[in-house]
Amino acid sequence: MGTGKFMVVIMASMLLIHTVYAASDPASEKLLKSTSDHSKFEALQQDFSSGPEVTKACLTCHTEASKQLHLTQHWTWEFLNPDGQRLGKKNVINNFCTSVASNYASCTTCHIGYGWKDDKFDFTSEINVDCLICHDSTGNYRKQPGLAGNVVTKPMEIPPGSGNMVKPIDLKKIAQAVAKTSRDNCGACHFFGGGGDGVKHGDMDSSLASPDKALDVHMDATGINFACATCHMTEGHQVPGSRYAPTAQDKGGAHLRGKEYTTNPTTCQSCHGQAPHKANAKLNDHTNMVACQTCHIPAFARGGVPTKMSWDWSTAGKMGPDGKPLIRKDAKGHLVYTAAKGDFVLAENVVPEYLWFNGKVKYTLFGDKVEKSSQPTRINHFEGAADDGKSLIWPVKIMHGKQPYDSVNKSLVVLHMAGNDDTAFWTNFNWERAIATGMASVGAPFSGKVDFLETESTWPITHMVAPAKDALHCRDCHAAGGRLEKVSGIYIPGRASDHARWLDGAGWAIAALTLLGVLLHGLGRVIVSRRHK
Amino acid sequence: MARVYIFKRFERFWHWAQAALIILMLVTGFETHGTYVLFGWETAGKLHTTAAWTLIVLWLFAIFWHFTTGEWKQYIPTTKNIVAVMAYYSVGIFTGATHPFRVTQLSKHNPLQRLAYLMVKIIINPVIWVSGLLYLYYNDLGVSKIAGIAGLKLGSIALVHTGAAFMMLAFLIGHVYLVTTGHTPLAHIKAMITGWEDLDDRKSNRRRMAPARKESA
Asked: How close, in Å, is residue B48 to chain A by CA atoms?
């Protein structure tokens, strides 16, 4: 036996001893939390050529999954407001990119399905549910814009004619590595709502993919590292905590294991209860008036990603000196003007606005009459009042918009924004034609006259919860001109506008007159005593 | 010089502790009201609450003391000589007259003082105390289910509490000034510190005002 061979034998036996030893001590084995290794599943040992093929394979074991997803807003993009308004992405016209209608192939990049390219999409199709967008763990699963939520499985030029070649993704590898939904999965769409990172919500952007404690005390990547679903605790794929049906005031206590709850598990109270302040119990006296978020989210867009505070469509369509669509960036390199979208105002570390909110949100919908006036049209607004017993003071982001509308029919319009055709606004920069196509796509009348309407939309601020030490201080609200200066219907000690002026006036007058009286009396005594001397 | 021991040890402790607490509460109270910034709102609020509880405890002792010693009788209002005392403060004090009232252990307050302190004890203090406790426990009023309390608005409670605070402030200003109106400017304050009041030795119109029972050293 040569030395080399001998060494190999020695090393092999050492390895063997190690393996035997490890196997003989189950306590040192790392526990796999899942009972299944998807890479060993027979149904996934194939080269998939489309998304639906993967779903088909998933459904062979998870037989009811698609049926569950069909019931979610993630699938329907529709929500029936308790007051009867038909809401959801599918129906609402917002003051960001405005409408999904007429732009399906582009917008449905963020749909949890495959192939929603027009209003004929089959919502009963089980194989068109996209499992991977929420369960990919590789980070390689991408849905390219303009493909109606389909994925690239062959090299493809996107957009066509751009010369930008997109490589196909390996669906087999991705399918074999599926996992529980992570922040990245949710974030792939929700961080980028409104057409870019942080644009829409203000309290959700890519900085939450791996935040530190100061940005989000719960999601703190090196701390308790919550996933979105830790709070948005799903059951049967139903995700609680939608902003369409928010719980403005949770009067319940912390949820206990083993107990059945019908209330929203996403609220702060569902973990923290009604009296969470131990060190300073007086703070608990605020919880019947003030939402937790009001003090504990001192500002939004805190992670270094700006959010859009206003969007002026009316200036869109400008060409630069080179004849190409104009683009302007701010000092940090963020877009503040594009020919495709107009002017933006961006902001970071934004102090929210505050209002009474009872959980009811009212929308101005497509088809509702809108009127140009000194007040912006409210795309949506939060209802609530100090004395309705259901409202708390909530922090919100108010998004200001200036968007096209039909000035003759007094109607919001469906814009045909994206698409490789000669009417899409983003390729032709012609409002009349883009709107004519958009309106025609939903069978709505269009007068041909376009004007721009100032609008406003309201977004709840509920993410980016700061550590307790960074929460608001008393003086932030208990002062003249404090954060809650505009919130009416409540007496806030220290807020000057709540004072009874007559009382303060009379009180100080009496004190001053008393002082003056005694000073004069004293002066009299001094003068008299000098004379006597 | 004649002296009379009129303020006993507890009484002096009570007075000065109360004085300090009331001044602290006025200062912190008007800060929480939003009139100025001094300690910072949170600290002001905490000091105000702590001082309030301290004062309440002090009051409980003082009330006990007043009733067990019979000192409460010092505050029974009287109209006897009240006109003379008023005349003294508005005229006599400037003409060099002596005070028409002579202090004794059994009657250490002149009729105006009796009235003023009684007003503090039965009006200002209770109003501050009650409105202050309602303020402090505002959140639990609804739970009380007591009609007339459960529905109280914080604004109304604050209004009454602030009003009473202004009354206390006016009292304080007058009180501090009147301390200097003894036969020497420091006579009264000395009495409140040592317990002994020096009596005015001048003989003028005092005799006719002298109280029935005289106890002087």
From this structure: 13
Which residue of chain A has the CA closest to B166? A507
Q: How far is CA A212 from CA A217, A226, A242, B51, in A?
A: 8, 12, 25, 41
CB contact under 8 A, B96 and A515: no
> Where does a domain end: A157, A179, A201?
A179
Q: At what angle do helices B154-178 and B111-119 cross, to 10 degrees?
A: 160
Contact at CB, B163 and A507, closer than 8 angstroms: yes
A488 and A340 housed in the same domain:
yes
User: Which of A496, A499, A514 has its CB closest to that of B174?
Assistant: A514
pLDDT given at position A268: 96
Is A531 buried (19+), middle (13-18) or exposed (0-12) by CB count in 10 A? exposed
Element of type H or E holding A505 = helix A501-532
List CB contacts of A173: < 8 A, sequence separation 6 or more.
Answer: A138, A140
Report the pLDDT value the prediction gives residue A2, as an integer from 0 to 100: 53
Q: Is B96 on the interface with A (CB under 8 A)?
A: yes
Q: Among A403, A367, A397, A401, which residue's Cα sits nearest to residue A382?
A: A397
Residue pointed to by tokens 């003379």: B84
Which of chain B's residues have a Cβ under 8 Å away from the Cβ of A503? Answer: 159, 162-163, 166
Q: In the predicted model, is pLDDT for residue B208 greater than 60? A: no
A522–B180 CB contact, under 8 Å: yes
B69 part of contact set with chain A, CB < 8 Å: no
Contact check, Cβ <8 Å, A478/B41: yes
Q: Is residue A207 part of a domain?
A: no
Read off the pTM: 0.89
Q: Does B94 touch chain A (CB under 8 A)?
A: yes
pLDDT digits (tens, 9 = 90+) for B15-57: 999 999 999 999 999 999 999 999 999 999 999 999 999 999 9
Among 1.20.1200.10, 1.20.950.20, 3.40.50.720, 1.10.472.10, what is the CATH number of B3-209?
A: 1.20.950.20
Range B114-140 burial, b when 16+ CB lie within 10 A, else e:
bbbbeebbeebbebbbebbebbbebee
B 70-89 residues inside an 8 A Cβ radius of A:
89
The predicted pLDDT at position A179 comes to: 95
Which of B42, B43, B175 to mutate: most A Cβ within 10 Å? B42
A329 and A464 belong to one structural domain: yes
Whether A379 is covered by a domain: the verdict is yes
Question: In which domain, by residue range, is A533 found?
Answer: 500-533
* Average pLDDT over all residues of chain B: 86
Amino acid B35: pLDDT: 94
pLDDT tens, residue by residue, B110-169: 888 888 888 998 999 999 999 999 999 998 887 878 878 888 999 999 999 999 999 999
Give the chain B residue whose CA is nearest to the CA of A527.
B94
Contact A413, A438 (CB under 8 A): yes
Residues of A in contact with B163 (CB under 8 A): 503, 507
Here the ipTM equals 0.87
Name chain A contacts of B162, Cβ cutoff 8 Å: 499-500, 503-504, 507
Tell me which amino acid residue B214 is: K
- Angle between helical axes of B154-178 and A501-532 (0-180°, round to 10): 0
Nearest residue, CB atoms, A514 vs list B32, B154, B173: B173
Over chain A (533 residues), the average pLDDT of each successive run of 10 is 58 52 62 90 96 98 97 96 91 92 92 95 97 97 93 90 91 96 96 95 97 98 97 95 92 92 94 93 93 98 97 96 94 95 97 97 94 94 95 98 96 91 91 95 95 97 97 95 96 94 96 96 88 72
Domain ranges of chain B: 3-209
